[in-house]
Amino acid sequence: MSEIEAFIRRLPKAELHLHLEGTILPSTLVELSARHPPRLPAVVGRTHPLTLPEAEALYRFTNFTGFLDAFKAVTNCLIGPEDYELAAWRMIEHLAAQGVVHAEVFIAAGVIYRWRDHDPAAFEPIFAGLERARERGQRELGISLYWIFDAVRHFTVAEAERVFRKAAELRPQFPSIVGIGLGGDERRAGSEPFRALFAEAAQAGLRLTNHAGETTGPEAIREALSIGSERIGHAVSAAKDFYLIQELKARATPIELNPTSNVRTGICPSFAGHPLRRYFDAGLLVTLNSDDPAFFGSDIANEYLLAHTEQGFTREELRQLAANSIRASFLPDPAKALWLSRIDSTE
Ligand code: ADE
Ligand code: ZN
After folding, report:
1. Which of 50, 115, 210, 264 is within CB 3.0–4.6 Å of 224 for a Cys-Cys bond?
2. Best probe residue, ligand 1, of 19, 61, 257 (max atoms within 8 Å of C-beta)
3. More confident of the two residues 274 and 117
């Protein structure tokens, strides 16, 4: 490990844009498929259990639409609570190994419901499995985790409502449920249809995140801000709009950037050409994240390393990115203060 890699590992970091399902490696998928009869379309038609080459084939895509299909196929291999628990535990171990001290993780609750015929009883046992992994991570590895329930924007508004209301209903009992998010295909649905649901979620004490400006233009980011989104995922297209950048700066809106994700889904030509550097220099509250690391062949430590090698981020600038990740998190202020001082004193 190089000196800079070791420094990145030592820096306490938060990961704020990470999809649980996007952390599942093909090898874990093979293991999961062996646990169940071949009853889901993602598995039917292939050998059973899945072979590693077959599992790897599920992760192949050439554009954003193909990526979303791949994400859905992998999500559909998660069946029981113990599958979710295993996936979450593996994710947590990998986060801790990279020096991540806190993560806010999306759960594709919208997909869970759709694949279980909207069975209202489907979610709680799965969530219990996730909580077991989270508690173990806290206990054994000292890592804190919050959950963000993610709805699929190109499903129906009624489906998003089910996801957000479930988050609001469970939150008093499970404070680890910190917020709600909107993912999926922005080209098929913007933010406006979810305005009332976002207001209702905020009223219930949930924090609001939103994917915007990933495959769409700056107007999608303005729309996301207008419905109360507190953090914006991707926001790549803000680079085209000087006034929007000024607005994001004035509001100090945290931006959850995922450079390798954008390169792999064909949104950015290269890491070097990603707007990360421009946003950082413009004074935006940018954070580095990995989105779906198992799909993109990266992870959070690698994103920091690429920021250094491809965009010339110095040690002090990497320290600043780590500090941004803590500031932009939904942690309470005393926890933020603790991690910020640890970041300051990291050598
Ligand atoms: N779901 C998982 N990753 C996503 C992304 N990058 N954009 C939209 N939806 C997603
Ligand atoms: Zn995402």
Report:
1. 210
2. 19
3. 274
Q: Please give the model's pTM, rounded to 2 decimal places.
A: 0.97
Mutate which of 24, 63, 65, 67 for ligand 1? The one with the most ligand atoms within 8 Å of its CB, which is 67
Tabulate helix, strand, coil % of the chain (nearest 5).
55, 15, 35
Residues 257-277, buried b or exposed e (16+ Cβ, 10 A)? bbbbbbbbbebbeebebbbbb
In the prediction, which pLDDT does 33 show?
86
The domain segmentation of the chain, as residue ranges, is 3-24+78-345
Please list the alpha-helical segments (H only) found in 194-255: 195-203, 218-226, 242-251
Pull the structure tokens for residue 153: 């924007």
Each residue of 26-72: pLDDT tens digit?
Answer: 999 999 988 887 655 544 456 778 899 989 998 999 999 999 999 98
Calpha distance 299→158 (Å, rounded):
34
Distance of CA 250 to CAs 50, 246, 253, Å? 50, 6, 8
Query: What is the third-level CATH fold of 3-24+78-345?
Result: TIM Barrel (3.20.20)
Q: Residues with beta carbon inside 6 Å of ligand 1?
A: 19, 22, 71, 183-184, 211, 214, 261, 291-292
User: Which H or E element spans position 130?
Assistant: helix 123-136
